[in-house]
Structures are given as C-alpha cells and as structure tokens.
Design brief:
Blueprint: H1 10-17, H2 23-35, H3 37-57, H4 64-88, H5 90-104, H6 122-138, H7 151-158, E1 170-177, E2 184-191, E3 195-216, E4 220-237, H8 241-253
Antiparallel strand pairs: 1-2, 2-3, 3-4
Helix pairs in contact: 1-3, 2-3
C-alpha cells in the first residue's frame, strides 16, 4: 500500500494511468502529483496518449444522421420507461412529487439528473448560474461586456489556467464569478459552429484528470472536464450537444 512519496514509483504512476489502483492508492498518488508538477505533467501526457490510442483502436464513428437518430431512439425509450413506471405508482408519485417541489423548487437553474448518465457535479450548477447571469448581462445595454481577455491576469488573480480558445470564437463578456468552489472565470462567446456558448472554469480543490463528458438537459447542452485542479464547463444550445463535446475535447487538448 502506498504510504509516502518515496514509495510512489513509476510503476505506481503507470498503474494510475491504467486505472489499476484502489481508491485509497489513487488518492495517495493524486496527492503526490499535486506536489510534483513534473510527475503530474507526465501523467497527463500518458493519459492523453492512452486516450488517443483508445480512439485510434475504436470502430469508425457513426455518421451524424445515424447518430442523431440513435440519440432520439434512446431518449424515446427512456421516456417510455419513465412513463410506464409513473403509471404504476401515480398515487404515491403525486404525494412525493408535491413534497419534492416544495423542498427543491422549480428554479430555472435546476439540472434534471434523470437525463444524465451520472449525478451532476456541483460545479455544473455553479456554471449554469454563471451562464444565466452572462445572458442577463448581454441583454442589458447598461452592462457593457468585456471583449478582450487577459489570461495571464486572470490566472494571477484566480489561479485558473484557461485553455486555448478557437480564434474564431468572439468574446462577448468575461467576468470573475463567485461559486461554492471559489472564484470562477465565466466567458461568453459567439462561436461560428456553436452559436452563443459560455465557458466556466473553477478550481475544485482536488487533483483529477477527467475526459470531457456530456450532460443532457431539455434546453441546453453541457460538457465538462477536469485537468489537474481546474474544472471546465461549456454550455450551449441542446441542438449543439455533439459539437459541444467535440469543442470540449479540443479545449482539453490545449491544457496537456
């Protein structure tokens, strides 16, 4: 079992990249990586190579029209399954539902986790709040937007390293936004392939490397990933979900 830095060897780092460590060992290696930037850089490079190898060995991607049809079929089956469950438990569901509404409310920033493949990370909720504020500011003539970014100044103030954005993305506004995880950076773009898209970045307080993941919501596409201690969330229209995931992948590649 890993105890301290001298006992964390290259074999341990390789096992971390291969996903062969238990949770306790993984935590110790991540603590080691947070104290040793060179080792963390090597691990992130290895993870990137592992991802590229997995992508190279994967079968050819499904054509876009078929992918859209498959997505609609999956969503339809999910709706049918939920409907069948609701019909069996309507009386109880009404009571439980009323209690849930009283407790949680119906705010516009709620993420419906039933449509996602995993519980929504808290940082996504913070990103949705920042996104809504950005859209509100963009619609107000009395709130001028910031159209020039200074990544070095933002990093010095927040400790957040921004990815390399596509030069074709036009900045409409940028602000430091408070969140439960600490100050985050919220940027609103006009992008040729995504329309209006926002990028929210915040330091999570823990080291991790998470490949881009897509969260499905009725009105928005949300993609998030984490490199080191900083997590990144992109939000765009629900009809741009596939392209949003591709954009997240491209942004994460600039941080290795």
């Amino acid at each position: 079992m890993l105890k301290d830095d001298p006992q964390i060897t290259d074999l341990d780092l390789d096992a971390y990249v291969d996903g062969q460590l238990a949770d306790a060992q993984k935590s110790e290696v991540e603590a080691h990586l947070s104290r040793h930037p060179e080792a963390a850089s090597r691990v992130m490079r290895d993870l990137s190579l592992y991802r590229d190898l997995r992508r190279a060995l994967a079968p050819p991607p499904m054509p876009r029209p078929l992918l859209g049809a498959a997505r609609r079929l999956v969503l339809a089956r999910r709706r049918d399954a939920r409907l069948r469950r609701m019909l069996r438990v309507v009386p109880g569901a009404l009571l439980v539902g009323l209690g849930w509404l009283a407790h949680a409310g119906l705010g516009p920033l709620s993420v419906k986790e039933g449509l996602a493949s995993a519980p929504t990370p808290p940082l996504v909720t913070a990103a949705l709040s920042a996104h809504e504020v950005s859209l509100l500011r963009a619609a107000m003539s009395s709130q001028p937007g910031i159209t020039e970014l200074d990544p070095d100044e933002l990093r010095a103030a927040t400790g957040i390293r921004l990815p390399g954005f596509d030069p074709a993305w036009r900045v409409r506004d940028a602000q430091v936004f408070p969140s439960p995880q600490g100050p985050g950076v919220e940027i609103l773009f006009d992008a040729p392939d995504l329309g209006q898209v926002s990028h929210f970045a915040v330091r999570t307080g823990s080291f991790d490397v998470t490949l881009p993941r897509l969260i499905e919501t009725p009105g928005q596409g949300i993609a998030w990933f984490q490199i080191g201690e900083t997590a990144h969330v992109l939000i765009a229209g629900a009809d741009r979900a596939d392209r949003l995931l591709d954009a997240s992948q491209a942004l994460s590649d600039t941080l290795y």
